[in-house]
Design brief:
Blueprint: H1 4-20, H2 25-50, H3 56-78
């Protein structure tokens, strides 16, 4: 699973790049968000299909939701122009 730390580090890198050039901020942020979420969505699909516990994928969805809330909060706090 993509760790929360790597997601937060991607967010910080994105904020640095947004600060350098504000014309690409939204498109670049959406690209980073999509690239970060693809492996998690693949993991959820495999867990739903192959896990011994049929509800194990729900824990991964919960972790992804918590990560999105943390990253959104940090984005709101650290980037007032966004």
């Amino acid at each position: 699973m993509v760790s929360t730390g790597s997601g937060i580090s991607l967010l910080i890198l994105t904020l640095i790049i947004i600060g350098l050039d504000s014309s690409i901020n939204m498109y670049f942020f959406l690209l980073i968000a999509i690239i970060t979420m693809i492996p998690i969505l693949v993991q959820i699909g495999f867990e739903k299909k192959y896990a011994k516990n049929p509800n194990e994928y729900l824990l991964t969805i919960l972790g992804m939701a918590i990560t999105v809330v943390i990253m959104g909060t940090l984005l709101f706090i650290l980037s007032p122009r966004f």
